[in-house]
């Protein structure tokens, strides 16, 4: 196809979205469709983003970008078992181009789903979808099926072509497949063991992983959750996490746990060059312990406290400790939401130390909604000559008759990247 | 146990994959008869943090886990991957299919806190000028980035890395 005939990728995605949407609405929802009783949910959010960028060399740039996000869910297709789901977005630059094409987009999901309506927890997906199963977290063009036996033994398999936007095309796989077997004891435990392989031109270093996951509830108000991932290609433990949740009261939730990973096994440079070993030491290992407390009071108000200790095997970047305290209120008749939080991180190296304070307020008045959000960060060491960041976001919006909402945000930023930056985002949301 | 060669393992897996798939389909009649998770929550839910226990008793759901496990506390949100990796269908009964992909998309240009700048009450990542903050987070805890920016959504990373 010659360059003159080539359609930019963003337009192609938009055309695909529109075509699929029209096709399926006509086929399944139109007056003459065999499944005219099908229900649908259609959500459209259109964004207009406006901001300037001063350039050190050349003319300053003005960006005016139009985004369209479309989400379509079709239910009750030929019966309650079948549904169809589509999600994607597209961009068109109306001012200066943000990239070489002046347009962009992505079809994130488009798949048909079968879910057994009366039990058995049997599910089938076919198309492009986001999958989480055990330690697998992938977007693929393929199929997924899952079921569980009366004994509690379950299984899942999936396979297809991975949908990836890796740093270089050499990293994208040709085939991704895997499965998971599990055992569930209702209300007490679920154990899972999974396998995943991804083949491609990875310099002879395919992606092969074995993962285990567990959920235990040894007593009321106590849960233990965990996950571990072993990289068969590098013969090393890529990551692990184990945490315990304690809920002595319905309003109290305490989480304590630990996790760890080794760079060489988790990042596997041939697959994740954004985490290349030119900047990271493959032999470095990270272990972290954490605790988080959530206490809910007066309906939807809550107090939150968290601490996290991060340790590195290597002296650079060294260890760090982070603490955070926050509270959010709902003040009936005055504010729909008020939040205040503060965080501080201390570290072996001063370049990793900072503090943060944030506050927000949310107010509804009839069909109008207003919000204000302010965040400031202060760094121990200057970054590009500055040691503070300030961002304030003010928003106002109105709901109109039907399902139309219009809102706009004004965002002011001072940071090492921006002296005084002002950006506007206009948002139109329609739900059918 | 001695691992076989790469080709032998691949052949074994390619044989097992359709066999397991057919077994699952053929064994449909003997599958668990516990109620499935509904594809859509029967009642419309409002905005804000979900507390399942406002309406449900602390009993096991179709996910074979108690409703209390899924109350959207900070602890749950921080570990939501551990729950969604087993019970994604339960998440989907309340959240639209695109909900997960607002963060876990193969490609995304507008970060969630920008798209939802009118919802400061939500716990969303990368608030503020995160390009500055990521220099610290990337040094101290790069593993926290991989879930969303490892095999996908990393074109912006390529600009510098």
Specify the number of helices of chain A: 2
Question: What is the number of helical segments of chain B per DSSP (H or I, 4+ residues)?
Answer: 7
Give the fraction of residues assigned to helices of chain A. Answer: under 10%
Instruction: Briefly note the structural class of the backbone of chain B.
Output: mainly alpha
Please tell me what the overall shape of chain A is: globular
CATH class of one domain in chain A: Mainly Beta
What is Rg of chain B?
20 Å
Instruction: Just name the CATH architecture of one domain in chain A.
Output: Beta Barrel
What percentage of amino acids of chain A are in beta strands?
Answer: over 45%
- Provide the low-confidence segments of chain B as ranges: none
Distance between the termini of chain A: 39 Å
The best one-word shape of chain B is: elongated
- Please count the beta strands of chain B (DSSP E, at least 2 residues each): 0
Q: How do the SSEs of chain A run, as a string of H and E?
A: HEEEEEEEEEEEEEHEEEEEEEEE
- Average pLDDT figure of chain A: 86
Largest sheet of chain B: none
Separation of termini of chain B? 40 Å
Query: Total strand count of chain A, please?
Result: 22
Query: How helical, in percent, are the residues of chain B?
Result: 40-55%
| Quaternary class | heterodimer
Name the pair of protein chains with the most residues at their interface, and give those residue counts.
A-B, 150 and 94 residues
């Amino acid at each position: 196809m010659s360059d003159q005939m080539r359609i930019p990728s963003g337009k192609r995605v938009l055309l695909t979205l529109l075509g699929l949407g029209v096709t399926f609405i006509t086929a399944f929802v139109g007056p003459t469709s065999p499944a005219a009783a099908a229900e649908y949910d259609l959500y459209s959010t259109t964004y207009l983003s406006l901001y300037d960028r001063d350039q050190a060399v050349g003319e300053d740039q003005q960006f005016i970008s139009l985004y369209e996000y479309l989400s379509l869910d079709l239910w009750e297709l030929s019966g309650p078992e079948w549904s169809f789901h589509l999600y994607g977005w597209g961009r068109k630059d109306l001012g200066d181009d943000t990239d070489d094409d002046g347009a962009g987009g992505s079809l994130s999901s488009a798949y048909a789903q079968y879910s057994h309506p009366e039990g058995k927890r049997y599910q089938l997906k076919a198309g492009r979808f986001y999958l989480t199963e055990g330690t697998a977290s992938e977007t693929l063009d393929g199929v997924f099926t899952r079921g569980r036996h009366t004994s509690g033994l379950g299984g899942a398999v999936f396979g297809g072509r991975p949908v990836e936007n890796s740093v270089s095309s050499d990293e994208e796989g040709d085939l991704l497949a895997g499965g998971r077997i599990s055992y569930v004891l209702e209300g007490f435990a679920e154990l899972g063991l999974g396998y995943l392989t991804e083949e491609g031109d990875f310099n002879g270093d395919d992606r092969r992983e074995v993962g285990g996951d567990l959920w235990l509830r040894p007593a009321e108000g106590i849960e233990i959750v965990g996950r571990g991932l072993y990289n068969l290609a590098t013969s090393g433990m890529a990551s692990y996490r184990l945490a315990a949740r304690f809920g002595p009261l319905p309003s109290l939730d305490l989480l304590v746990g630990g996790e760890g990973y080794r760079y060489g096994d988790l990042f596997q440079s041939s697959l994740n060059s954004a985490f290349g070993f030119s900047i990271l030491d493959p032999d470095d290992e990270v272990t972290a312990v954490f605790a988080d407390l959530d206490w809910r009071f007066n309906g939807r108000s809550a107090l939150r406290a968290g601490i996290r200790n991060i340790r590195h095997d290597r002296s650079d970047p060294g260890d760090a400790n982070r603490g955070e305290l926050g509270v959010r209120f709902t003040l009936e008749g005055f504010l729909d939401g008020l939040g205040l939080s503060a965080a501080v991180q201390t570290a072996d190296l001063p370049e990793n130390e900072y503090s943060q304070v944030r506050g927000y307020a949310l107010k509804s008045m009839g069909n109008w909604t207003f919000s204000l959000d302010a965040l400031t960060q202060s760094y121990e060491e200057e970054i590009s000559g500055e040691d503070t960041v300030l961002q304030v976001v003010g928003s106002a919006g109105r709901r109109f008759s039907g399902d139309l909402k219009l809102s706009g945000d004004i965002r002011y930023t001072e940071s090492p990247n921006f002296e005084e930056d002002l950006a506007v985002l206009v948002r139109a949301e329609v739900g059918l | 146990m001695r691992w076989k060669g790469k080709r032998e393992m691949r052949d074994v897996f390619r044989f097992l994959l359709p066999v397991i798939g057919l077994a699952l389909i053929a064994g449909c009649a003997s599958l668990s008869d516990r109620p499935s998770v509904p594809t859509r929550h029967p009642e419309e839910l409002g905005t804000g943090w979900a507390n399942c226990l406002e309406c449900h008793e602390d009993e096991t759901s179709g996910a074979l886990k108690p409703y209390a496990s899924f109350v959207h506390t900070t602890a749950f949100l921080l570990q939501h991957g551990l729950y969604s990796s087993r019970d994604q269908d339960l998440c989907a009964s309340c959240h639209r299919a695109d909900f997960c992909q607002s963060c876990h998309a193969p490609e995304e240009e507008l970060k969630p806190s920008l798209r939802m700048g009118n919802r400061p009450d939500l716990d969303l990542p990368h608030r503020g000028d995160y390009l500055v903050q990521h220099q610290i987070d990337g040094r101290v805890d790069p593993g926290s980035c991989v879930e969303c920016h490892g095999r996908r959504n990393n074109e912006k990373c390529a600009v510098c890395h």
